[in-house]
Amino acid sequence: MASTSNLMWNSSFQCAITFDFDPTNVTHFPASVVPTLISLVAINIVTSPPTVLINLLVIWTVLENKQLRSNSYNLIFAILSLSDLLIGLIVQPLFVALGVCITVQCSYICELTMAYAVSALLCYGWTAVTLAIVSLERYLYIERPLFYHASVTSKKLMIATAVTWSCVGFSKVFSRILANSSFWTRQLPMILTMGPSFVIIFFCVTKIHLTARRQMRTIVAQQQSVAQQGKIKEYKRTLTLGLVVLASVVCLCPILILKIVGAVKSNWGDDDFRYLSQGIYFTVMHMQSIINPIIYSFRLSDIRSGVKNKICRHFRA
């Protein structure tokens, strides 16, 4: 959407948030655009319910079990699942509605575009800052264990999450206030919110991944005690975070690639790329919300067993 790129307003489509093209005239689309858009809508229709279901099961598993919800790491992942659940519950249905609206040329394209863009930016902003918090939590646990056990509590992490989620919301409000300013001025509130999150994630995950792998090899080479087995479990949690971050990078790569291609292509306005790129990379980003809970459902035994038990109970019922 235009809030993430420097777009020119089309004279026939005056909307605060818009596309690289006029979506109100389907007769001007290349032949492949409508079938591809319908395919993207179908993908989101199919993946939205399981995204909601599996994230709901993860949240339910953590909150139902006192031992799980007392662990800061599990609690933060439950919050991360909440942002992913909102993507399946709100963002993907809005994308489907917008795709259908463009295809049939309904009169609510502008309203749906704005609703989708705002909800997507909020949810992905919440996901980014939550990943930053869990990355910082793992960094303190691995690299500063004394400080972690003395200072880090579930309550403080909940407060930090509430504050950062509020900052993401306020950044979106300020972006709307600056709607008539230059492109980079409009992006400044979101950059100031999201930029530090990406720096924290990159630094913490890189540092703790190397430390966890090295210490796991040391523990395995020695005779394992009960305490050492507990450390291995914590290091596996750290590696799980690394997989989630890697999945996020993979899902973001199409955006970067398509933006670079769009910037260097001389015939940007003469082919299908201009019309298809945004729908493709937003659909890929939606897939992250179903990949994340699958990763930590398989990697974290406590959550895996809880989710499995709930599914089995449902089918027995």
Question: What does this entry look like structurally?
Answer:
The protein has ten helices and no strands. It is mainly α and 317 residues long. It has a single domain (32-315), classed as Rhopdopsin 7-helix transmembrane proteins (Up-down Bundle), CATH 1.20.1070. It starts with 32 loop residues before the first helix and ends with a helix. The model is unreliable at 1-12 (pLDDT under 50).
Descriptive labels:
0% strand; mainly alpha; 10 helices; globular; single chain; Rhopdopsin 7-helix transmembrane proteins; 317 residues
Topology:
Layout: H1 33-64, H2 66-69, H3 72-104, H4 109-143, H5 145-151, H6 154-177, H7 183-221, H8 226-264, H9 273-299, H10 301-316
Helix pairs in contact: 1-3, 1-9, 1-10, 3-4, 3-6, 3-9, 4-5, 4-6, 4-7, 4-8, 6-7, 7-8, 8-9, 9-10
**Structure class:** mainly alpha
In the predicted model, the low-confidence regions spanning at least 5 consecutive residues are 1-12
> Can you summarize the main beta sheet?
none
Number of domains: 1
The first-to-last residue Cα distance is: 44 Å
CATH topology: Rhopdopsin 7-helix transmembrane proteins
Text of the CATH class: Mainly Alpha
**Helix percentage range:** over 70%
The number of distinct β-strands equals 0
The portion of residues forming beta strands comes to: under 5%
Subcellular location: Cell membrane
Domain G-protein coupled receptors family 1 profile: 54-296
Main location: membrane
Organism: Actinia tenebrosa
